[in-house]
Specification:
heterodimer, A: mainly alpha, MetI-like fold, globular, disordered N terminus, B: mainly alpha, 2 domains, 15 helices, 69% helix
Chain lengths: 315, 285
């Protein structure tokens, strides 16, 4: 091991001498120095806010009453939230929005990835085109779809009328079609991301496995179910978890396009929390809603994690 | 993994299906491209021409006035652009610096409590950002930084995601290099800066792009933290082209949208390989 010439070797904080010798030249305070800038930020902008959020969830507080008006209210916020039809309505819409959004964009993404994994013309350009919506801000996406889906003059309804639909949907301004429209736009912008992740996983599947399956006489469908799908299981789990977290927090499109309306028809949990916190300034209640939704996402994540155990190729 | 021959290196070639597959893929691509083409085309039309049927994809005459108004008009995007550039560039540089140093510490330096702190970092990774917005809003109000760009910049300089990504990358680098450096008398900073950091270039590039795209596009943080239009970043600024009651000015809004997405789209097209690899890497590991 290296010579102990490095000056920071002996600060004596680590009790285990043998361990310190093993990492001669690197000890306590150098590590802390390297970590410090990041740690300061982590403590101030992540950990402290998190602890604060947990604490204020048990208080009643709004911006008018100021810091002096903080009162401890125990579980009242949670009781109010859980006893409130508005919250459960938002939970239902969030589950609908997220489950359809996640499953459609994952299936679409897998389909596209299988297509792109073949020897087709212009693969790189296609990958860029499919992925493009994912890197564009939700407001720009929202603006173009707002115009495209305009019930009276939008090109989508013009097309539907030309195809013979007398009363095409009102899309974003309709109670019935508002949420489906948002899901559709969300899927449109997420499919390419899923496709790209799946594609890179597909390209890492060992060719030997396909050859072995082909020798055993497996057709295309059986090769997919016995080789491709199990090999993709870690990716599927990863996407299921990250997409569920992302979609259940979906905010930009909803905030820009419908502001939760018409009525409450597109008020999902994340928009409900935003409304309570930053429109009604009920910080305590909003924090409680945030914690409830966090626990929900945590449970879903744990579910996906357990589900994939023992089903993957490499586990 | 790398010793195996992969499906990527020797693709399954079935000539028969390729023409059909190519046609299908390009047909699907139309679905993803048409809204952008419509956006571009409408941005060069007078308002009254935007919705005429059948759609005229090539505007005639080409109406540049929308862009003139977006850039030098009353609500100029220049302000939003400058703000977005400030926030994004400081955010990306800061994120790269703090993530690289912390990633190095977590992966290659030993200190008491290291693993516990790293676990704490990971544990906070799935906390919804929204839950943190309420207390951050309060903090920034207390600090007098509410409605300033600092409220956007500061939290972006430290990301658990970036730290994690670089920790994994540093951990995968060979030990022998650092030992050789130390034998040659390099101190720990030199080992970090001269020996290991140059190896991290691909990962740093990837993190820079991911961080750039997510900061540039962030809508929720400015919505909560900013109220003065002269402080708006692009996503929030874009909404000012749409919120006049009684219908938005379609051509103008599309010109603003095109102006907003050009930098990210360009960055993505140029660096798409690094971007995709970083996403794939963080996903599968």
């Amino acid at each position: 091991m290296s010579a102990g010439t490095f000056p920071a070797g002996a600060d004596g904080r680590t009790g285990d001498t043998r361990k310190r010798r093993r990492v001669a030249g690197q000890s306590g305070h150098v590590g802390w120095l390297f970590l410090a800038p990041n740690l300061v930020g982590f403590l101030s902008f992540t950990l402290l806010p998190l602890l604060t959020a947990i604490a204020i969830a048990f208080t009643s507080w709004n911006v008018v009453s100021g810091y002096a008006g903080i009162t401890f209210v125990g579980l009242a916020n949670f009781a109010e939230a859980l006893g409130d039809g508005a919250l459960w309505g938002a939970v239902g819409r969030t589950l609908l929005y997220a489950s359809i959004g996640v499953s459609a964009s994952m299936m679409g993404g897998l389909g596209l990835a299988l297509l792109l994994n073949r020897d087709i013309a212009g693969r790189t350009l296609l990958r860029v085109l499919f992925f493009l919506p994912h890197v564009v801000t939700s407001v720009a996406i929202g603006l173009v779809w707002l115009l495209l889906l305009n019930p009276d003059s939008g090109p989508v309804n013009a097309g539907l009328r030309a195809l013979g639909a007398d009363t095409p949907p009102d899309w974003l301004v309709s109670q019935t079609w508002g949420l489906p429209s948002l899901v559709m736009i969300a899927v449109w912008s997420a499919v390419g991301y899923n496709a790209v992740i799946y594609l890179s996983a597909l390209q890492a599947v060992p060719v030997d496995l396909y050859e072995a399956a082909a020798i055993d006489g497996a057709g295309a469908f059986r090769r997919f179910t016995t080789v491709t799908w199990p090999a993709l299981m870690p990716t599927t789990t990863f996407l299921a978890i990250t997409m569920t977290i992302g979609q259940s927090q979906g905010f930009g499109l909803i905030a820009f396009l419908t502001q939760g309306g018409p009525g409450e028809s597109t008020t999902t949990l994340s928009y409900y929390m935003y409304q309570q916190g930053f429109q009604f300034y009920r910080f305590g209640y909003a924090a409680a809603v945030g914690m409830i939704s966090f626990v929900g996402v945590l449970l879903l994540t744990a579910f996906f994690w357990r589900f994939q155990k023992g089903r993957g190729l490499y586990t | 993994m790398s010793t195996l021959q992969t499906a990527g290196t020797r693709r399954w070639r079935r000539r028969g299906g390729n023409l059909g597959a190519s046609l299908l893929a390009w047909a699907l691509a139309v679905l993803f491209v048409v809204p952008f083409l419509w956006m571009l085309s409408s941005s060069l039309k007078r308002n009254i021409d935007v919705f005429t049927l059948p759609i005229r994809w090539i505007p005639d005459p080409v109406h540049w006035a929308n862009y003139a108004e977006v850039w030098i008009g009353e609500k100029s995007m220049v302000t939003y652009y400058v703000n977005s550039l400030i926030v994004t560039l400081t955010g990306v540089l800061g994120d790269l610096t703090t993530s690289a140093m912390a990633g190095y510490a977590f992966a290659r330096l030993k200190f008491r409590g290291r693993n516990k702190i790293f676990l704490l970092y990971l544990a906070t990774a799935i906390i919804p950002a929204q839950l943190l917005l309420v207390p951050r809003f309060m903090f920034f109000q207390q600090l007098g930084l509410y409605d300033t760009l600092w409220a956007l910049i500061l939290p972006g300089v430290f990301t658990v995601y970036g730290t994690f990504l670089l920790r994994q990358a540093f951990a995968a680098a060979p030990d022998a290099l650092g030992e050789a450096g130390r034998i040659d008398g390099a101190n720990e900073w030199q080992v970090f800066w001269r020996v290991y950091l140059p190896l991290m270039r691909p990962m740093l590039a990837a993190l820079a792009i991911i961080s750039f795209v997510s900061t540039w596009n962030d809508y929720e943080t400015p919505l909560v933290m900013l109220t003065t239009p002269s402080n708006f970043t692009i996503p929030l600024g874009l909404t000012t082209f749409a919120d006049s009651e009684g219908g938005i000015s379609a051509g103008l809004a599309m010109a603003a949208a095109v102006s907003a997405l050009v930098p990210v789209a360009a960055a993505f097209v140029i660096f798409q390989r690094q971007f995709v690899e970083a996403l794939a890497h963080s996903g599968i590991k």
